[in-house]
Design goal:
This protein is an alpha/beta fold. The chain contains 13 helices and 13 strands. The chain has a single domain, classed as TIM Barrel, CATH 3.20.20.70. The longest helix has 21 residues. The radius of gyration is 19 Å and the shape is globular.
């Protein structure tokens, strides 16, 4: 692919950005997706979730990306995820969208299917590209069922339907989650995908489903809504998705006409997105900058960099150099809902993040990653209740809360 040239420019976190679809972000700070686990037991957005996005909307971020919304109520990533399969909860979904956008933020819904890492493997058989168990502790209890071609056609319809409903409800667009070891990421991985049909065997076949989903979603939401994709720079696993192949996927996504690519990495087995695996970074800040810089040399696709970015000087530096176009922050928003406004004003940078509860035992990395999600969810309830800065509950309280939500979700799925 011939190199694409980009004119030198001077931008900073307070610069607006117009995406290819025509929607303008008022600034370059995004709240990246974090699983809120604040849906009702029937999959509807709760009032607590709506209040949380009101707080984040007032917090100044140019872009708010929701935690993953399920396209299929038979498969959840975590307990109490929101599900959007039909219009039964569309009014509540609309309230959620308006809450985030009320102060000028652009709100985008992340849509997802967990594949073989679905929660509750004891009572519902997971699915995946191949009948291969993941290596993550707690998610390898049941062997997944390999999806048939009919299943894949249904998956594509569900993605398009959820995307159409999200935009109809008032979201500015959707982000297709193809990272972190979830279903579309599993299809991209030569370790998880050992199919011998047109969806496996070669890099082109492994990315076929993602590109089909992107095309279906674009047709469903139209050319003037945001279509974003979250993609792993690498899986950080032996025989998993590697950087060179990921770059080719990114180029294919650019040709497919997406509006924004968020760069991430890792999965349940190797959670690089939490900093567990170091990438080559500038002064140890930003986990996936090297990949973004390589992609920028050959692509003009708008890029969002998430993971480990913490200082205002660094944010403005990478934006001014054109390495990326949007800075994504996740965990800082879990303790400071108005951190974007403070960054834009130059008055404060993200605080040192408290340590999430963890089990200090070998092999507990996947469990500790889930505990971090539960810790975030406990913080989110406090932010929704009006707290301006939170430190999070202790390990015992987090474990109890996590156990309660897992049990409640399990009881609704028998």
């Amino acid at each position: 692919m011939p190199a694409k040239t980009r004119k030198p420019r001077t931008v900073a976190v307070d610069s607006p950005l117009t995406l290819p679809c025509g929607i303008t972000l008022p600034n370059r700070i995004a709240k990246a997706a974090m699983s809120e686990q604040l849906g009702e037991l029937d999959g509807a957005p709760s009032q607590t979730l709506t209040r949380l996005y009101s707080a984040w909307g007032r917090g100044g971020a140019g872009l708010l990306i929701t935690g993953n919304v399920m396209i299929d109520r038979r498969a959840y990533v975590e307990p109490r995820n929101v599900t959007l399969e039909d219009d039964r909860h569309l009014e509540a979904v609309g309230n959620w969208a308006r809450a985030g956008a009320r102060e000028g933020s652009v709100t985008v819904m992340q849509i997802n299917h967990p594949g073989r890492v679905a929660v509750g493997p004891l009572h519902r058989r997971p699915v995946g590209p191949s009948a291969l168990r993941p290596q993550a502790v707690g998610f390898n209890l049941r062997r997944p069922r390999a999806l048939s071609l009919d299943d894949l056609a249904d998956l594509r319809r569900r993605c398009a339907r959820t995307a159409e409903l999200a935009v109809r409800a008032g979201f500015a667009g959707v982000q297709v989650h193809a990272a972190h070891g979830y279903l579309l990421s599993q299809f991209l991985s030569p370790l998880a995908n050992q199919r011998t049909d047109e969806y496996g065997g070669t890099p082109e076949n492994r990315r076929r489903l993602l590109l089909e989903v992107v095309a279906d979603v674009r047709r469903a939401i139209g050319p003037t809504a945001i279509l974003s994709v979250k993609l792993n720079s690498a899986d950080f696993q032996r025989r998993g998705l590697e950087e060179a192949e990921s770059l080719e996927i990114a180029f294919a996504l650019e040709q497919a006409g997406i509006d924004l690519l968020e760069v991430s990495g890792g999965n349940y087995e190797t959670p690089a997105m939490t900093g567990a695996v170091a990438d080559s970074t500038r002064e140890h800040e930003a986990y996936f900058l090297r990949y973004a810089e390589q992609l920028r040399q050959r692509s003009a696709l708008p890029l969002m960099l998430t993971g480990g970015v913490r200082t205002l000087d660094f944010m403005n530096d990478v934006l001014a150099h054109g390495a990326v176009d949007v800075i994504g922050l996740g965990r800082p928003f879990a303790v400071q809902p108005d951190i974007a406004a403070d960054l834009l004003a130059g008055t404060r940078e993200p605080v040192a993040l408290p340590t999430a509860p963890r089990l200090p035992i070998p092999g507990a990395t996947p469990i500790n990653s889930y505990l971090q999600l539960a810790w975030h969810a406990a913080n989110f309830r406090r932010i929704a209740a009006g707290e301006k800065q939170v430190s999070g509950p202790g390990a015992v309280r987090t474990l109890v809360a996590a156990g309660i939500t897992v049990t409640a979700r399990a009881l609704t799925q028998f």
